[in-house]
Amino acid sequence: MLHLSEILLQHHDIATFEQLLEVVRQRAETEMFFRIDIKPPYPDTPANWEDQLEGAFVGIHSVTR
After folding, report:
1. In this predicted structure, what is the pLDDT of residue 29?
2. DSSP code of 48?
3. How many distinct structural domains can be found in the chain?
4. What does the alpha-carbon distance between residue 39 and residue 32 come to, in Å, rounded to a whole number?
5. Is 60 exceeded by the pLDDT of residue 20?
6. Rounded Cα–Cα distance for residues 65 and 29 (Å)
7. Looking at the domain assignment, is residue 65 inside a domain?
8. Which residues, at least 6 apart from 6, have a Cβ–Cβ distance to it below 8 Å?
9. CA–CA separation, 62 and 38 (whole Å)
10. Is the C-alpha dihedral spanning 48, 40, 54, 52 positive or negative?
11. What is the value of pTM for the model shown?
């Protein structure tokens, strides 16, 4: 199971929410489950950040930003 906190700990180079989405998309290729256990700390994190992260994990690209 992939945890969002695990991604944030492993990728200190992520500086924006968009970069985080890309990492989630990449990790979704090898993971079955995704748990959002922390809010991303980026200033550009949108109000619907949970929906966007879930969409990135399952491959839904139509989540409104």
Report:
1. 93
2. T
3. 1
4. 21
5. yes
6. 23
7. no
8. none
9. 23
10. positive
11. 0.89
pLDDT digits (tens, 9 = 90+) for 22-59: 999 999 999 999 999 999 999 999 999 999 999 999 99
d(CA 41, CA 60): 23
- Tell me the residue length of the chain: 65
Burial class of 32 by CB neighbour count within 10 A (0 to 12, 13 to 18, 19+):
exposed
Q: What are phi and psi of 21, to 5 degrees?
A: -60, -40
Residue 10 forms part of a structural domain: yes
- 16 CA to centre of own chain: 11
Query: Confidence band (pLDDT; 50, 70, 90) for 64?
Result: low
Comparing 65 with 4, the larger pLDDT belongs to 4
Residue 63 covered by a domain? no
Domain that holds residue 7: 2-58
Q: Which structure tokens are listed for 30? A: 């090898």
Two structure tokens written together for 23: 């990492």
